[in-house]
Each structure stands twice: as C-alpha cells, then as structure tokens.
Amino acid sequence: MYAVIETGGKQYKVEKDDVLFIEKLPVEADATVDFKVIAVCGDDGLKVGTPYVEGAAVKGKVLKNGKGKKINIWTYKPKKGEARRMGHRQPYTKVQIESIEA
Q1: 38 domain-assigned
Q2: 3-state DSSP assignment of residue 83
Q3: Could you give the number of structural domains in the chain?
Q4: CA 82 to chain centre
Q5: Residues 6-25: what's their mean pLDDT?
Q6: Share of residues in the chain with pLDDT > 70 (%)
Q7: How far apart are alpha carbons 4 and 69 in whole angstroms?
Q8: Among 52, 59, 82, 93, which residue carries the largest CB count within 10 Å?
Q9: What is the pTM (predicted TM-score) of this model?
Q10: Within a domain: residue 86?
C-alpha cells in the first residue's frame, strides 16, 4: 500500500516506514504529524481525491529538525573588481511514516 501526500507545496509518494526529508514544519522532535492525502493505492485499487481523499490518513513521526548542506553562491562583475560570496542552508524536517489508513 502506498499514498501520495502533500506538504510544503510538494507531493511525495510514501509507504509505511519510509523516511522523508521535507520542508521544515513548526513541530518539535518526537511529535506526530498528519498529512493531506491526495491519492491512496491499496488492495481495493487506486483512490484519487478532489483535491484530497476523504477518510484517508497518513501519520508520521518527526525524527528531527535540521539544516541541509551548505550551498555556496559566488557573484562577480567583470572588470569592476567586485565579487561577493553568499551561502545558504535549507532547513528541513526528517519524518518517518508510521501508518497509512485508507
């Protein structure tokens, strides 16, 4: 059984016990999170919602919040002697899918 969930403006195909790195959620570690279900596929076939499937639930456990690897950005203007270095670390939430109910 698998489901398609929506979080952080993105869609993810998930199965039970999957571990995801998603956009940062405003929750602490060890909290439980419910996701919006777009589609569910099980023994009785595929159910697609408009926009969400009624009665379907995907629950996940937050493992940790953190930041990704640093991305370095360099900008420069030729013949002007101007250069600038910037960095960015994208925050994320690591979630483990605990159950899928259709």
Answers
A1: yes
A2: strand
A3: 1
A4: 38
A5: 96
A6: 100
A7: 27
A8: 93
A9: 0.85
A10: no
What pLDDT, on a 0 to 100 scale, did the predictor assign at position 102? 82
Residue 26 pLDDT more than 90? Answer: yes
Task: Give the C-alpha separation, 87 to 14, whole Å.
Answer: 31
CB distance 60 to 25 below 8 Å = no
The helix (H) or strand (E) run that includes residue 19 is: strand 19-23
Strand 2-7 and strand 82-88: the pairing is unpaired
Q: Is the pLDDT score of 90 beyond 90?
A: yes
For residue 8, tell me if it sits in a domain.
yes
Letter for the amino acid at 27? V
Which residue range is the domain that position 21 belongs to? 2-65+93-101
Specify if 52 maps to a domain. yes
Q: What is the pLDDT of residues 49-69, one digit of tens each?
A: 999 999 999 999 999 999 999
Q: How far is the C-alpha of 27 from the C-alpha of 34, rounded, in Å?
A: 12
